[in-house]
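#struct-help
A.M.: can someone run this one for me? Single chain, 114 residues.
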Amino acid sequence: QVQLVESGGGLVQPGGSLRLSCTASIVFFDVYTMGWYRQAPGKQRELVASIAVGGSTNYADSVKDRFTISRDNAKKMVYLQMINLKPEDTAVYYCNRAGGNWSWGQGTQVTVSS
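D.P.: on it. Structure tokens below:
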């Protein structure tokens, strides 16, 4: 069973930045497209960014040009650099493979508020 551990969240003011990290306990990490998801209170979990094995990326329109996903296959980690954060980015952020097929980790809370 894959274990996913997210970290790096916190409370920031609008316009601030955060860098989220996720580690995955899986042998063949580098064969999977990875994604960052988020779930705001009362809303469904949504995919905000994904990164393929070769490094190509995709972003939800709401975060394009503000979020950057990256990965380090040797460390089995995936990152999400977030800049110019907005209150609507407030959510619990999770990482998972594309499609969300692995068991979800506990996530990391991001709160954007003045």
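A.M.: thanks! The first strand starts at residue 4 and ends at 7.
D.P.: also worth noting: The CA atoms of residues 6 and 60 lie 20 Å apart.
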